[in-house]
Amino acid sequence: MYLLLQTVLLGIVEGITEFLPISSTGHLLIAERLGLGARSDVFNVVIQAGAILAVTVIYWPRLWSLLLGFKQPENRDYALKLIVAFGITAVLGLIVTKAGFKLPTELSPVAWALIIGGVWMLVAEWLAAKRPDHARITWAGAIVVGVAQIVAGVFPGTSRSAATIFSAMLVGGSSRIAATEFAFLVGIPTMYAASANELYKAMKAGAGGENWTQLAVGFVVSAVVAFIAVKWLLHYIQSHRFTVFAWYRIVLGAALLLLMPLLV
User: Fold this and answer.
1) Ramachandran quadrant class, 35 (left: phi over 0; alpha: psi -120 to 50; beta: rest)
2) Could you tell me if 41 and 201 are in contact, meaning their C-beta atoms sit under 8 angstroms apart?
3) Which of 23, 76, 84, 44 is CA-nearest to residue 215?
């Protein structure tokens, strides 16, 4: 029963943090140190897939309209920018993988990434407020978003959503709402591909000992919570900045640095 409760809590953590700009990887590492326990790569991939599915459902009408209306110049331009951003991430991801990069599991880099990312968000919000924005994603914005996804993947605690949203806002000059939509849409194929790759590697290494009931529970919990979290975020940013998330990151990162000896 306790293990099942841990699974539910991890699903909740993943669902809340995957698309909010506060880093799911960082929070899962923190949850592990706080006693929820380290889980297998398969488990982490499965609960992440739940969050991806939730966002896919939310944005399905938009994805479907892009597919059906691909012949329309505006839709075709937007879809091609999504494809280019994903392609850049895929190529850079292969390079990073071939280089033998491994994600760090220590809390120190996570703490610093949270703090630096929080400061970056405050500065980005300030700069974005000083320039006129629009609902159009530029090609420069799409390219930088593709690069930002890899940067976030290499540094746990950075947050893929934060890196991509603010890259689109600053480089692309797009509005907070438009930047968030593009970041989430390009994140769908990116995260499906990354999850499939991780799942393939884990299954190849042998995943016969997995508890499939716990995997199912984690998947469902993550999907439901992520759906609620993303719906809330999309409503929130209609009239609010991301400032509260920036300060949360800074406070959490500072707390981690202070409490590090107790969490190691």
Assistant:
1) left
2) yes
3) 44
Classify each residue of 94-104 as buried b or exposed e, where b means 16 or more C-beta atoms within 10 Å of its C-beta.
eeeeeeeeeee
| Axis-axis angle for helices 243-263, 107-129 (nearest 10) | 170
Mean pLDDT of the chain: 87
Specify the pLDDT at position 80. Answer: 95
Structure tokens at 227: 């759906």
- Collapsed DSSP state (helix, strand, coil) of residue 134: strand
Tally the residues of the chain. 264
Mean pLDDT within 58-86: 93
- Read off the pTM: 0.90
What residues contact 129, with CB distance under 8 A and at least 6 apart? 241
What confidence tens digit (pLDDT) does each residue in 186-206 have? 999 988 988 888 777 777 776
206 or 162: which leads in pLDDT: 162
Geometric angle at alpha carbon 238, from 188 and 84, rounded to 5°: 30
Tokens of 58: 């939310």
